[in-house]
Design a protein that fits this description.
Helices cover 75% and strands 3% of the residues. It is built from 11 helices and 2 strands. It comes from Polaromonas jejuensis.
């Protein structure tokens, strides 16, 4: 065990965290501001990955593949909001869960029909296929690019929410939508835009994750659960909270999976440590969420309203 391994896993945790943030940013706004429980958010992430893979196979350009994922997910989000979601805003959360769970099943079967049941692979772009030097340590250039993209989206999201008129309307609509509507603001259009932007960020996350994960049906379910943990820890409705919580969860999960088995080997038999370590590591983020809920139920970084 040396400093190089620790630094490498910190970067991996940071990279995983910013991917979680791309998903959590849209989900926390939809859940916190529109009070809509969208279990299909992971499916939008999956569809973004498939859009990117198809565009890359057709054009050979990773940049166009990312644009296709973002554009396709944006249009898909708008269509979903118009066809299904807008009719559910006034219903209770159980109806939200049942309807969006049905959408999850629909999209999983849709990708099996269109792309088949076998995983689809999206190649790392050639110009990011190497490694970069960070203070004498080499790290995959593509994974570092994911970190940069995630940080840029975080900055852009903060500026949008806190420094623009649209962000002001979003924050006001979260507190008193009836009053905002009475002032002449089209709340339905604002909600549709918010839902579509969240879908676009989920599609971007899918496109960025495609080259390091296999693109396959159902890939959005597991990451959705972790994303829900992120928004609970960070504070529902808080983009800033989603960012910090995503980094915390990403680092805790990555470091736990790497170092917990090693630590257990120091006090138990190797076979037991290798079997129990990964299982215990997978529980760490949920234990963290339980501690946060017991200590600070509103989350670590709740939205300021």
């Amino acid at each position: 065990m040396n400093g190089t391994i620790v630094f490498a896993q910190l970067l991996n945790g940071l990279q995983y965290g910013v991917l979680l943030f791309l998903l959590a940013a849209g989900l926390t706004l939809v859940f916190g501001i529109m009070s809509f429980v969208n279990l299909a958010h992971g499916s939008l992430y999956m569809m973004g990955a498939y859009f990117a893979a198809s565009a890359f196979q057709f054009t050979g350009s990773f940049g166009l593949a990312v644009l296709a994922a973002m554009g396709g997910s944006l249009l898909l989000g708008l269509a979903l909001e118009f066809i299904a979601v807008a009719r559910l805003y006034r219903r209770d959360h159980l109806d939200h869960v049942l309807a969006t769970f049905g959408l999850v099943l629909f999209f999983n079967e849709l990708v099996r029909i269109v792309w088949g049941s076998q995983p689809v692979f999206l190649q790392v772009p050639e110009f990011l296929g190497g490694a970069i030097d960070i203070a004498g340590f080499t790290y995959p250039a593509y994974r570092f690019a994911i970190i940069v993209v995630g940080l840029l989206v975080a900055i852009g999201s903060w500026l949008l929410i806190n420094k623009t008129r649209v962000g002001m309307l979003i924050r006001a609509g979260a507190v008193n939508p009836a009053m905002v509507a009475a002032l002449g603001v089209n709340i339905r259009l604002l909600n549709a835009m918010l839902f579509a932007v969240g879908a676009m960020l989920a599609g971007l996350a899918g496109a960025m994750a495609g080259p390091i994960l296999s693109v396959q049906s159902g890939m959005g379910e597991s990451v959705l659960i972790t994303t829900l943990v992120v928004i609970v820890i960070g504070g529902i409705g808080s983009v800033t909270g989603a960012f910090y919580a995503a980094l915390i969860v990403g680092i805790v999960d990555t470091m736990g999976r790497v170092f917990l088995p090693f630590m257990l080997r120091q006090v138990t038999e190797r076979s037991f440590a290798d079997a129990a370590g990964p299982a215990l590591a997978s529980m760490l983020v949920y234990l963290l969420m339980a501690v946060v809920l017991a200590w600070r139920p509103q989350g670590l970084f709740p939205a300021n309203r």
